[in-house]
Amino acid sequence: MQMTETPAGARAWAAVLAVTLGIFALMTSELLPVGLLTPVGRDLGVADGTAGLMLTVPGLVAAVSAPLITVLAAGADRRLLLVCLVGLVAVANLACAAATHFAVMLLARVVIGVGVGGFWAIAGGLAVRLVPPRHVGRATAVVFGGVSTASVLGVPAGTSIGDLTGWRTGFAAVGVLGLLALAGLLALVPKLPSQGTIGFGDLGLLLRENAAVRLGVLITVLVVGGHFTAYTFVRPVLHAVGVEDGLVGALLMAYGVAGVAGNFAAGARSARHLRTTLLQICVAIGAVTAVLALAEPGPAGGTGLLIVWGLAYGGVSVCLQNWMLKAAPATTESASSLLVAAFNLSIALGALGGGAVADHAGLSGALAVTALLLLAAAALIGVARTPRLSTPPTAPDRR
């Protein structure tokens, strides 16, 4: 099979950054309703719990589309596939900005889910084809930094735009960001012909026979699902502790800055102390949400707790990705698709479950559930063995 020449130097890192921008744009698209939940629900005539479907729907769709696109589009040029997926999401965000009915909003969110799941699953294994071998680890960290940075920086920025000029402008801005990412992929990423095929059987075999991969999926469900059980409703939570509506965007931006710091700190530390880093993250998020559920910290205390929450959650994506790469080092695309499926399914289930709990037991109930799930994840990690790079692959990609 004819292969393209691996780019070198600045061109290689420009390609990595273009892929990172694509992931940043798509994950910001998926998570933007977190910051704009209340105004969207108010304008489109739905309650906060129902408005949470804006996260549930794309999360479920992304969980299905990640392995589906990985298998069905296995023969497609990866660059062309990424361009099509990010373009699809850009258009869907513009449709969200123009939506006058909640059903239209949800339909556009379905399209976003397709793009997010497929893009993330494919992009996760591209670093090895974009940079020389000695830089693959760093490039992978940069690419997946787009995931954590979206939740801790992209969403606050979109929220601030929405607060200043209306929620429709927030969605439109993310749509424009997607178009910029599309242009970057076209200009900076080389052609990346398919290297072979992956079957559904490969994914199932990897999940069945690799215990470390199974454990990574379970940890993902507990940590990400638990986080979004409460974080979906962070805006109402901030209102409940006395934060004024006009300050929410600024506080989420502070959460974002803390999260970026947490991403880099966890990325560096998890290379040597992966299990300990994940354990500390789970304990921190569990403790913060427990305090918010049981106490009345007030605006100042609530702000401090939010920043600690952001610092801890900023390291989740890079730690989970490192876990899966160590668990299945020779089957990165298969392992990435399973991680993406679990991650997005957890977002959906967390938002759905959090909405149900919030509607019946209030925000403190959702926060308490988050604390319990994160402490359960901490207990699981505490007795688990860290996967090692020497773990033999049991379901090799057919290349």
From TrEMBL:
<feature type="transmembrane region" description="Helical">
    <location>
        <begin position="80"/>
        <end position="100"/>
    </location>
</feature>
<feature type="transmembrane region" description="Helical">
    <location>
        <begin position="246"/>
        <end position="266"/>
    </location>
</feature>
<feature type="transmembrane region" description="Helical">
    <location>
        <begin position="278"/>
        <end position="295"/>
    </location>
</feature>
<dbReference type="InterPro" id="IPR011701">
    <property type="entry name" value="MFS"/>
</dbReference>
<dbReference type="InterPro" id="IPR036259">
    <property type="entry name" value="MFS_trans_sf"/>
</dbReference>
<feature type="transmembrane region" description="Helical">
    <location>
        <begin position="52"/>
        <end position="73"/>
    </location>
</feature>
<keyword id="KW-1133">Transmembrane helix</keyword>
<feature type="transmembrane region" description="Helical">
    <location>
        <begin position="106"/>
        <end position="128"/>
    </location>
</feature>
<dbReference type="InterPro" id="IPR020846">
    <property type="entry name" value="MFS_dom"/>
</dbReference>
<feature type="transmembrane region" description="Helical">
    <location>
        <begin position="12"/>
        <end position="32"/>
    </location>
</feature>
<feature type="transmembrane region" description="Helical">
    <location>
        <begin position="337"/>
        <end position="357"/>
    </location>
</feature>
<protein>
    <submittedName>
        <fullName>MFS transporter</fullName>
    </submittedName>
</protein>
<keyword id="KW-0812">Transmembrane</keyword>
<dbReference type="Pfam" id="PF07690">
    <property type="entry name" value="MFS_1"/>
</dbReference>
<feature type="transmembrane region" description="Helical">
    <location>
        <begin position="211"/>
        <end position="234"/>
    </location>
</feature>
<feature type="transmembrane region" description="Helical">
    <location>
        <begin position="363"/>
        <end position="384"/>
    </location>
</feature>
<feature type="domain" description="Major facilitator superfamily (MFS) profile">
    <location>
        <begin position="15"/>
        <end position="394"/>
    </location>
</feature>
<keyword id="KW-0472">Membrane</keyword>
<keyword id="KW-1003">Cell membrane</keyword>
<feature type="transmembrane region" description="Helical">
    <location>
        <begin position="140"/>
        <end position="158"/>
    </location>
</feature>
<dbReference type="InterPro" id="IPR050189">
    <property type="entry name" value="MFS_Efflux_Transporters"/>
</dbReference>
<feature type="transmembrane region" description="Helical">
    <location>
        <begin position="170"/>
        <end position="190"/>
    </location>
</feature>
<feature type="transmembrane region" description="Helical">
    <location>
        <begin position="307"/>
        <end position="325"/>
    </location>
</feature>
